[in-house]
Specification:
binds adenosine-5'-triphosphate; homodimer; alpha/beta; 10 strands; globular; 27% strand; 6-stranded mixed β-sheet; 7 helices; binds magnesium ion
C-alpha cells in the first residue's frame, strides 16, 4: 500500500547540511498495525511527514497504492491526504481558538457532512477518548494528556484508511494510554484501518504486529 | 521549604466551574527528590504552576521558606521565581525565534553574567543533555525529544535551588530518559537541589525518594 524506496532527507541549517534520513526502504501493507521505534532524533517524525505527504524526500521514491508521488501539484497532494490520512502529531497542533469539539470536527467539514452530522460524529469520537466532560474547553483549558486525546479523536473522526500517530500515548498515564491502544487495535481489526504508531514505549510497540527500528536515519531492525 | 495548606483551585469555562484542586496539603523539604503521579487531568500541572508561583490558588495557603505568599506584588513574585526556580514545562515553551543555545542562556541574562560566561555556561548544560551538535538549531529544527532536552538544559543552567519538571522524559526514548534522571539525581545528591518531577512513568517515579499520588484534584497516596 505504501512503498518507500531509498528515501533520503536532508535539511540545511545555515551552512550545515543535516542528513536526517539516509536511505530508507520499506513497505506498509494495507491493514497493518506497525510501530516505528528509535532514539530521540533518529528521524521518526521526519519519516512520518514523508509517509503523510507533508514533506518531500530529498531523493528516493514514495508510492501510494502503486502510484508514484510526484510532488508537483499541491492541491492533488492535499486532497489525497485529506481523503486518506488521519494524523496525530507529536505536539498535537490543535487550533487554539476552537473548542475541543470544533477541533475534532474540522477535518469533517471537507466531507460535505451537515453541521448536525459533524457534531454527532465529533461527540461520538470524543466519547471514545473519554473527553465528553471537556468538549467545550479550548486547548489552553485542557491538560497535556487531554489535548493529546482530542488530537487522537480528530485523527479518527474522519474514518481515514491510514492513521499516522506520532507518540500518541506520550502524555498519557499507563491506563489511559492502554485505552488508546485498545481503540487503535479495534479500528485496525474491525475496520481494517492501516495504523503506523511512532513510539518510545516498548510496551506500546509490543502490541503492534510489526516493529521497524530507526537509528541515525537508517533502518536497523 | 515549600508548604501547601488546603489548596483549592477552580477555573471558569463559560457558565461551568471546574474544581481542579480540591484541598491539597503537603510539604516539600529542602533537598528532596519527589515525584507527583496521577491520571491525565488529575491536576498535576496545575499543582506545579502553584508551586512555581505561576498561578494563585483560589483558596488555601502556600508558604516558601516559612514566608506566606501573598500574590499582591507581581514583581516580587517574579523576582523570587527567577532567583529560585528552574522550570521544565510539559510543552517546553521554548522561544521559536531563538536558537537552542540562546534559549538555554535566556534565564542567565538576569544574573548579571557577561555574554562570554553565558555562552560557556549554556554550552556546558547543552553538553550535559547531549545536544551540542544541535545548539544552533531553532526549536522548529529540532525533534520533540531534542526540544525537551533544551528545555531541561534551560531549567538547570541557572543553578536554581528548586527544579519543577513536568513530564521531563515524556518525549525521550528509555535510554535518553534515564540519562536525564541520572542528571537530576546527581544534581540532587551533589548540589542539594530540590527536585519535583511530574511523571506518568512508574520507572521514573520509582527513582524518586518519595511519591505523591494525585487523583481528581486530591492526594490519594
Ligand atoms: N526543519 C529541520 N531543520 C533541520 N534539522 C531538522 C529539522 N527537522 C528535524 N531536524 C533534525 O532531524 C533529526 C530527526 O528529527 P525527527 O524529528 O525526525 O526525530 P525523531 O526521531 O522524531 O525524534 P524524537 O523521538 O525526539 O521526536 C534531528 O536530529 C533534528 O535535529
Ligand atoms: N485554564 C483552564 N481552564 C479550565 N480548565 C482547566 C484549565 N487548565 C486546566 N484545566 C482543567 O483542570 C484539570 C487538570 O489539568 P492539569 O493540566 O493540571 O492536569 P494534569 O494532571 O497535568 O494532566 P496531564 O497528565 O494530562 O498533563 C483538567 O481536567 C483540565 O481540563
Ligand atoms: Mg519525533
Ligand atoms: Mg500535565
Amino acid at each position: 500500500m505504501l512503498r518507500l524506496t531509498d528515501i533520503h532527507k536532508s535539511y540545511h541549517v545555515g551552512p550545515t547540511t543535516v542528513d536526517v534520513l539516509r536511505g530508507i526502504s520499506f513497505t506498509v501493507e494495507k491493514g497493518e498495525l506497525l510501530s516505528i521505534i528509535g532514539p530521540s532524533g533518529s528521524g521518526k517524525s521526519t519519516l512520518m511527514n514523508i509517509l503523510g505527504l507533508l514533506e518531500q524526500p530529498s531523493s528516493g521514491t514514495y508510492s501510494v497504492e502503486d502510484t508514484k508521488i510526484t510532488y508537483d501539484d499541491d492541491r492533488t497532494l492535499s486532497s489525497l491526504r485529506n481523503k486518506m490520512i488521519g494524523f496525530v502529531f507529536q505536539q498535537y497542533n490543535l487550533l487554539p481558538r476552537l473548542t475541543a469539539i470544533d477541533n475534532v470536527g474540522l477535518p469533517l467539514i471537507y466531507r460535505g457532512m451537515s453541521e448536525k452530522e459533524i457534531t454527532e460524529r465529533s461527540m461520538e469520537y470524543i466519547k471514545k477518548v473519554e473527553m465528553e466532560e471537556r468538549s467545550r474547553h479550548k486547548p489552553t483549558e485542557l491538560s497535556g494528556g487531554q489535548q493529546q486525546r482530542i488530537a487522537i479523536a480528530r485523527a479518527l473522526a474522519g474514518s481515514p484508511s491510514l492513521i499516522l500517530a506520532d507518540e500518541p500515548t506520550g502524555a498519557l498515564d499507563t491506563h489511559t494510554g492502554q485505552e488508546i491502544m485498545n481503540l487503535f487495535k479495534r479500528l485496525n481489526e474491525e475496520e481494517g484501518i492501516t495504523i503506523v504508531v511512532i513510539t518510545h514505549d516498548p510496551k506500546i510497540a509490543a502490541q503492534c504486529r510489526r516493529k521497524v527500528e530507526l537509528r541515525d536515519g537508517i533502518i536497523t531492525g
